[in-house]
Write a structure and sequence with these properties.
- This protein has 1 helix and 4 strands.
- By secondary structure, it is mainly beta.
- It has a domain of about 45 residues.
- Strands 1, 2, 3 and 4 form a 4-stranded mixed beta sheet that branches.
- A hairpin with a 7-residue loop joins strand 3 and strand 4.
């Protein structure tokens, strides 16, 4: 089965989410990502887990989840 398409944003966009709660730490390297908490819950992901990400038409690559972002109203 194919995973649903999702969108990605830079870490700085979390400042646009008034009232957002972050669990974990900001991504600190080329192989770390923050994940929306609702998407993480649906995928069974937690801070510290590995996830494969497809971006920019490149092949899937492994990343470490450094943070979950709990957006208000999500």
């Amino acid at each position: 089965a194919q995973d649903p398409a999702t969108a990605g944003h830079g870490w700085s966009s979390t400042r646009l989410l008034a009232g957002a709660r972050v669990e974990g730490r900001a991504p600190s390297g080329a192989k770390t990502v923050a994940v929306d908490a609702a998407a993480a819950d649906a995928a069974g992901l937690a801070v510290g887990d590995r996830v494969r990400v497809v971006a920019g038409g490149r092949p899937a690559a492994a990343y470490r989840v450094s943070a979950l972002v709990h957006a208000p109203g999500a």
